[in-house]
Amino acid sequence: MPGDRIIFGAAAIPEPDRDWLAAVERLPVESIWQGGHVLPPGPTGEAITRLALMTAWTERVRVGAAVLLLPLYPPVVVAKQLADLDSRSGGRLTVGVGVGGEFRHEFDAVGVPLAERGPRTDEAMWILRTLWGGGPASHHGAFFSFEDVELRPVCPPAEPGPRMRPGGPPLVVSGRRERAMRRAAHLGDGWLPYLVSPEAYARSVRTIEEEAGAAGRDLAGFEWMMYLYCSIRRDGDRARDDVARFLGSAYGDKPRDMLDRIAPAGTPDQVAARLQAYVDAGVRHFVISPAAHDDTLEVVRLAAEEVLPRLSVPASVG
Predict the structure, then answer these.
(1) Which end of the chain is less packed: N or C, by CB atoms within 10 Å?
(2) Which residues are in the Luciferase-like domain (predicted)?
(3) How are beta strands 265-266 and 223-232 bridged, if at all?
């Protein structure tokens, strides 16, 4: 079952910025996240490039990919890149994994059939863990094969210095469908859905727990996370306008009542009430993604300083 501590992370929207990251590190925020596409429709960053910037420009927080579209990448190459980043950052990396698919041209351009993105992701997760396990490794799967290779993460020069954690960084699974829940239950170190209601999150918790139980897997240490688009302002109407402008057209001009179920907006009191419903459903680590085109630091600051203290784990858990 989910644990007894609630923590907040933040998404570096729209791009990682050194001053923004420094300001967020001074807040009660424990992680910072960014993802990215290989061939996005606009001039926005790619996930591993953004991770490199964020690990270099931060000192304290965990740094996460939300998300890395794993089927677009050769898994042996990405295993080395992520191992080096985890080592250089002192073991601060977490990798959110997704299958993508919204931009078919990305898959066509890298020679990956769209229909194979799920099984390729599963196999790639096994490969990452195999290579991060240390020592010579072999793998012969449906899509990838190698024999007796060894991945050696970069060793920072300082002694004693930071190193990649034994077994590599955690892999948390993103998505909304049951296939993603099954992937989290069997292969993931956590669950990181997005654009779901508290009721849908509670159903996902049950599905993952049932799937893991049937497989004989103990979910001790599993992270129950939520990537949450939201806006928090002193002026609640401004916050709701933020979300409508930021998400409405991008997700099919959804009506405001539907957006409110999946992307809370309002004053700190109003948003805290909405987030408490997610906590009751099982969320313990929120990644606050400002659904706003300006003043995103204010959204994160109000979340960390005024929303987080209002949340509490249900008394039956602990």
Answers:
(1) C
(2) 19-247
(3) parallel
